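Contributing new records

If you add data, match the layout below exactly. Sequence lines come first and carry their own label; structure lines follow with theirs. Keep one chain per record. Anything else will be rejected by the validation script.
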Amino acid sequence: MGQNNTVRLRTVALVGHGSGGKTTLAETLLAAAGAISGKGSVEKGNTVCDFDPQEKELGHSINSTLGGFDWLDARIQFIDTPGYPDFAGQAIGALAAVDTALVVINAQTGIELTTDRMMRLAGARQLCRMIVINKIDVENIDLPRLVGEIRERFGSECMLLNLPAQQGREVVDVLGHDGGESDFDSVATAHRALIDQIVEEDEELLDKYLEDGADPDAEQLYAPFKKALRAGHLIPILFVSARTGAGVPQLLDTLAKLVPNPTEANPAPFLKGSAGAAESTPFEVVPDPERHILAHVFKIVSDPFVGKLGIFRVHQGTIHKDTQLFIGEAKRPAKVGHLLRLQGKESIDVDALFPGEIGAIAKVEEVEFNSMLHDSHDEDLVHPRPLEFPEPMHGLAVQTQKKADEQRLFDVLHKLEIEDPCFKIERHATTNETVIRGLGEMHLRAKLSRLSQQYKIELNTKPPQIAYRETITNKAEGHCRHKKQSGGAGQFG
């Protein structure tokens, strides 16, 4: 039963630059799969993924959000991530929990900063990568030029899996069709190039293809297709319009049929040894429900109603409700009182989570970002290979407007710090200042807004002071006498 659940799973992250339409695409996928009764919009502030009041006000994502739906025989789990560089910590953290990165590109603006960063980071973690070109229905776009730029930037392995037709109102599948009309390029040429690339992954299939000259059946291509994805030899390009729904059925089929499940994907990179130790060695995690439990906490949420939530992916073993788990190298077990599955802001109680599934535990204070959950001391030194997070450099000195809020401020700032790996707090004894650091002005403004709206703490801000220090750097010659007498004790030196 557990192994069947794992084989059904497809776990993907929607990543890419801001305004690419990731949240709208997630909403369209949920509606098309029947997971929600009606499709919301970012403009109206009623989407599943952008439920935070700040996100509704700003009109874009600032947190990564989980969701899922069923399509065909598969269960697709996705993480919708923010795209603006100021919120990169949320997007990068999501890569540790998925097998495939769907890199969403805006057809109008093309390749941008976050697009390039997430392609590079996903490739470094050996994730399967797919490129989704969104907004193909808008005017004044040059899709052939954009495809050329993608191949120039990311390599010739970026190949067309489908093509837009009827001015972006429809999409033509390339894998299953060797002819047809499209807005650009030849369907037959794209079909032949894709088949040639896929069959190279299977020697037996390649020999038969060269001898017979006939295309293999679609089902025969699924295994070598996934093998090419895992090896990075194939990065499919798909076209959609999240607004009109063009290409969405084809994307759903691709997720269910061609995206690897946890038993087929490249294993997550883990090490065994004390974190940061030079003698750490690679450790292979096997998505087997019968083995010891190993789960990785990739996100922390401080919910004002539920409390502290540790969101994790199960990589090995099965976590049941009321399981006794150890956290990292701690020797004292923590009991899982509630086991949750998340769908936007909604949390659903479940009895068990199997390898590949993403879930959450509540009110376990020892859980931190990057914690490992396990049920055996044999695995107490297993930890994930570190992710590359940008260093927070933009700083603001903060001070409460009310004296009574001073102590509470540090408790709240600590909650914000454990949620976001790119948000730091510094206390400078020299200048007697509390300094918050983030990735940019937008990042810090979002934190200040949350302090005000959710925690009712108003702050005064100013640029941090620089603590200049003087010291003796060279030898000096000569002498000087200091003498001062002005009543009382005199001075002499």
